[in-house]
């Protein structure tokens, strides 16, 4: 039970990031003097991280055009904040990032249908289990005659979220099952509806929510034998924050005593009805508008700093001093040799240990740092393509190296490389989608929220594609215009 | 040599230059007096251009001395070499105008950046020089719209805008269509008449005969013969010179 789609690979990457940064810092003694509860109370704010693409646990509603996090987990978080007499501040990010955010202190706690597996318990502390719903399979209604429970799935294809409890249960308890792993539930449901898998293993409330919104689907009980204490969902904390954990556990006890969970689920159901009342993409235009806005902010700012960094890197590289050229070469090679996704994680969580940077800023920094390396290589090519006579003429006139670069070489180099730079800008627009992983509300992030909210698997993707195309195509028109204007010769 | 070495504006002593294993200049000696026009002629690959490019340190000589105004250029630091731009102008075979700026901006760039001239002053100086080379109406066009002859005249004006003591010409007419050679040589001759010190690497023997004070014949990395144009063309002394002059005369016939 519990959304635990943290993949092994992802875990490894994050561990590398954390360990890497940890070694830069003197480790604070975790248990000796636990101030976690005092810190929250003094700051007057409880910062909670979540990944709102998992109804009914947490998702977003379109309230008068504004997106707002709702769901059972959000109600629980509100209750906890109320009991602590502090304000609640919710930070949205991808599920993969939640535990890292807890460990690096970006958030006080993470709630998001997290299942406290033994591996996770090594890296984070957990509250009591606050919810334990049970396991279901989603199947196509037409198959209801043949598929009754896990035993009917022998030798069939079963879809689960990668690295989750559902996946290990399917592998362990269904003989000869072919278990297919994917990252997001909407993708799994899409696979089910297109008959790529026979069933999808999900939590009971998730299954019920889907059935309520899609009449071609049916939910059946899994038939797994489960120990409730092992498979519930709990709230994650930084290791050693015992005082905060204890305070939260008191709130959970209170919630259980007042039997508030069924009420929370009912509220979530109401919100979901509102969401699915009108699943037309027009109704969600504000989601897309926000996505486009942030995609543009990231792209424009990153391109600007990317070019500045690129110029600096290339001037360093062309310097006759090794202490300048060598770091530039090393930087470029390193950035080109590591995935941008890891770089984004590193900047947000790694540097985040030293300075607290907001996700958007971290995203922009990471994309700029990445782009700078590529831009510097493009510029270097452009400079090499400028006729040698140009620098000789400059030297014969006594121009300094700086004046020669600024007035003669770089303007010509930029003209040479304009098409290649344009390519790089378009790549940035598209690759900026990677920063959705740290919860920056750009197009892909909004797209996933919307797919989760509306239970429409394909339409938002189509809209996102069109939006990306419009952005890229307009940009290439603009670049062409400037290219023509630069053509003196 | 009639004049004393002490008075030479440029004095070249045993200048050598190698590119890797290939020794291009094997020991050049010579003096250039203020106001003199020296034409350097010789077969292709004889090192004429390399010699010229050593004079303003576009190439760093391997050994030897270039004494300019009493100072050895080969010992100059990068900063000091940069100051040569104000004193030695150079005109290239392929013009090397900056295609990203107008003719006027091409000319104003170095006076403003290097001599820190005010914009208005740089404009005045540039327009005056453009007038002199007969291209005042081209001030605001980009180099791509100029003919080869016009481009080379602008390149000369650009070098002159720095008010140099010496002008170096590296085959200034070799890249030109034949009908444009005349207009460039004409400007060069005017410049010579005004008393500019000039070192001209050229294949234009007519120009050398008419304008040069001295003609240096270079071959195989040495200056084989230095003489007045009349002597060198009509009564060459050196065997290599004779061979070269004969060849040219035969080609012309």
TrEMBL record, chain A:
The membrane-spanning stretches of this chain are 294-316, 345-367, 457-479
Q: Where in the cell is it found?
A: Cell membrane
Q: Which CDD domains match?
A: TM_PBP2
Which SMART domains did the record assign?
A: PBPb
Supply one GO BP term: amino acid transport
Q: Which UniProt keywords apply?
A: Amino-acid transport, Cell membrane, Membrane, Transmembrane, Transmembrane helix, Transport
Q: How does it sit in the membrane?
A: Multi-pass membrane protein
Q: Does the keyword Membrane apply?
A: yes
Q: Where does the ABC transmembrane type-1 domain start and stop, copy by copy?
A: 292-479
For this protein, the record's NCBIfam families field holds: HEQRo_perm_3TM (TIGR01726)
- Family, as annotated: Belongs to the binding-protein-dependent transport system permease family. HisMQ subfamily.
Q: What is this protein called?
A: ABC transporter permease subunit
Automatic annotation (TrEMBL), chain B:
User: Which superkingdom, per the lineage?
Assistant: Bacteria
State the annotated membrane topology for this chain. Peripheral membrane protein
Listed GO CC annotations: plasma membrane
Its predominant location is membrane
User: Which parts of the sequence belong to the ABC transporter domain?
Assistant: 10-245
Q: Which Pfam family, any one, appears in the UniProt record? A: ABC_tran
Q: Which CDD domains match?
A: ABC_HisP_GlnQ
For this protein, the record's InterPro entries field holds: AAA+_ATPase (IPR003593), ABC_ATPase_HisP-typ (IPR030679), ABC_transporter-like_ATP-bd (IPR003439), ABC_transporter-like_CS (IPR017871), MetN_ABC_transporter-like (IPR050086), P-loop_NTPase (IPR027417)
Q: Which SMART domains does the annotation name? A: AAA
Task: Tell me which positions the record assigns to the signal sequence.
Answer: none
Q: Indicate where this protein resides in the cell.
A: Cell membrane
GO function term, MF aspect, one: ATP hydrolysis activity
Gene3D superfamilies reported in the protein's UniProt record: P-loop containing nucleotide triphosphate hydrolases (3.40.50.300)
Keyword terms: Amino-acid transport, ATP-binding, Cell membrane, Membrane, Nucleotide-binding, Transport
- Return the similarity comment: Belongs to the ABC transporter superfamily.
- The protein's name is ATP-binding cassette domain-containing protein
Origin organism is: Fructilactobacillus fructivorans
